[in-house]
Design brief:
heterodimer, A: about 240 residues, Rossmann fold, 10 helices, globular, B: about 375 residues
Chain lengths: ~240, ~375
Amino acid sequence: MSLLALEALEVAYGGIRAVKGIDLAVESGELVCLIGANGAGKTTTLRAVTGLVPAAGGRVLYDGADISRLRVHEIARRGLALVPEGRGVFPQLTIEENLAMGAYARSERSAVRADEERVYGLFPRLKERRRQTAGTLSGGEQQMLAMARALMSRPRLLALDEPSMGLAPIMVEKVFEVIRAIAAEGVTLLLVEQNARLALETSHRGYVLEGGLVTLQGEARALLGDPRVREAYLGE
Amino acid sequence: MGFPHDMLSGLRRDPRAKWVGVVLVAASLLALPFVLAMAGTAWVRITNLAVLYALLSLGLNIVVGFAGLLDLGYIAFYAVGAYTYALLASPHFDIHLPWWAILPIGAAVACTFGVLLGTPTLKLRGDYLAIVTLGFGEIIRIFLNNLSEPFNLTNGPKGIWSIDPIHVMGIDFGSTTRFAGLAFSGTIKYYYFLLVMLVVVIVVNLRLQDSRIGRAWEAIREDELAARSMGINTRNMKLLAFAMGASFGGIAGGMFSAIQGFISPESFILTESVMVLAMVVLGGMGNVWGVILGAVLLTFVPEVLRYTVAPVQKWLFGRSLIDAEVIRMLLFGLAMVVMMLVRPAGLLPSAVRKRELAVPHDER
């Protein structure tokens, strides 16, 4: 059974259907990416999965149960964490406080403290600045913090929305290094990304979205070699 | 050079020094009404009013300071509490329940109204929420004014009088008691009663702030969407803030009824809501001590001005140039403007609020 499975998922904003029936599966331990142009429906799909927008049709199966009618916090408590586009850190709270918020739904204190150390291991820069407010961090550091905060909830599935957006190239490299490290720890990841080459190079499998539909899917390496992908998304 | 500072921080670290401080503060608070009574009973009454406003401000602080929901109709809950007390302890219906039964009932009724207001308005934020709460405050006041027909519930603008004073263990708070050679007037007894309540409310506020609930409110204030993604049930948390704030308002209202012995809708006008909000903002939103300071200052300053404006004018110009009442509000307004310019986060800002105003926001 897949950890996450979308069955004919549809999402509409007003009368306009942004996602027109998507089938998608993420297996436990996988790193799956969703690529496509602006307006292809990538972010909308992710927002529907995490409950931020309602599904207009179809089902979202997580761990075998339909979660498409659940509210955002209920989904979050089941271990499906989202790092939203634009990061959404708490700007006036310190890094430590932000991380503590990530563990809000958890009660085991010693495990939370251990996870804090683990997360600081992944993001040494955050440890240096733990008492600084999140708003004073650079964009890349805020992205790191948002990911670290999501990890503090011990997610079974971590959904990342455009983690490279608005970052300097060197920060993009660093963010993807961390994504690989998170995947190596066994966390299942669903990655939405405009930078198709980087996303496919990092992922196990990929889906290509166009106009709210999946047009291509398969092994990430195979997609990298696909002439249609190369022409449309890799600029060749 | 560093010696006095070292000594101070050393004292602060010493737990004994802390207890000595607590005892000193407690002793001066206990002696306060007798000292004030020498200057006139009016000052004790004003002090009671200040404590009452502190109770009210601490309730509003939960809604505005902790959860970040702007409520401009908070006085409605005060009114609900006050009327609940008045109806259950006055000749109006000839019901005379004891205070320990009515205060919780008043809190519960106010809490219900808080939830009633909160449920439909939860999706609103900022200005929109402020407008709806303002309307709610007015609705309550207008109802109180008009619910004398067809069934006489509130006695309309005439209000309710002869409200029972509080009795504790056979001691009537409405009259003077002699004890250990001291005359405890009703006003002084109420002062001690209010002081005990204030301590309880302070403890509740401080505990709330450091609890999981407090953290959830902090997250909601910062970024509601992100808070939800952290697994926080934002709807329930916001409702809880409304309900708790309203309950405190209801209890304060009940005390107001008992102390005054007479209430009418006039006591619950919009200006009162604004005043309480001003206390919270001026003192320092989210900081319990700041809020109390704000309440005490905003209660005392207008009163002090009332007694000093005319004599000072006489002394300066030989006669009274401007009417005391006019100049009082003028100075009051001026003080508020200056305060907001000099200390925008309040007199004693909360740690997070201080950051919000000090840190330049990034260009996000």
